[in-house]
Amino acid sequence: MPHPPTTFNFSLREGDFRANLPTQSIAASATAPPTLPPSVEAAYKIKCITLKKRMAEIEEQNNGTRERIIRNERAIRKFRLERAILINRLSDIINKNGMDIEGLPVISDDNSEGSSEGPPT
């Protein structure tokens, strides 16, 4: 038994035209699918449960990977800061001893990544 089409009114702006557009969902107009044999339904149910378990495992792995990436990014920031501190100390020591500091890498902040100055970080 098909459902009667539903209609709705809409207006783009006050004073614009109003339209009655018939809408009918595909599911409402389609006949119900034939019932599946119990063995096929059981197989689909098992497959659904298996897929849900696998999805949960993948989400757990993704969370672990995300946390590992965050830890690694923190470690990189820490090591860059330590490197800058050590280079500054080294240049202070060299300057106190009156030595030339040519050859030491140029200290750069994170905004100048990709510049040709100094070694890559």
Q: How many distinct helices?
A: 2
Low-pLDDT segments: 15-21
**C-alpha-based Rg, rounded:** 34 Å
Q: How widely separated are the two ends?
A: 71 Å
Strand fraction equals 5-15%
Strand order in space, largest sheet: 1-2
Strand/helix succession: EEHH
Write structural notes for this entry.
- It is a single chain.
- The chain is mostly helical and 121 residues long.
- It is built from two helices and two strands.
- Strands 1-2 form a two-stranded antiparallel sheet.
- β1 and β2 form a beta hairpin.
- The longest helix is centred in the middle third of the chain and has 59 residues, at 38-96.
- It starts with 5 loop residues before the first strand and ends in a 25-residue tail after the last helix.
Core attributes:
8% strand; 52% helix; 2 strands; 2 helices; two-stranded antiparallel sheet; 121 residues; mainly alpha
Write the SSE topology:
Layout: E1 6-10, E2 19-23, H1 26-29, H2 38-96
Antiparallel strand pairs: 1-2
Give a summary of the structure in a few sentences.
It is built from two helices and two strands; from the N terminus they run ββαα. The protein has 121 residues and is mainly alpha-helical.
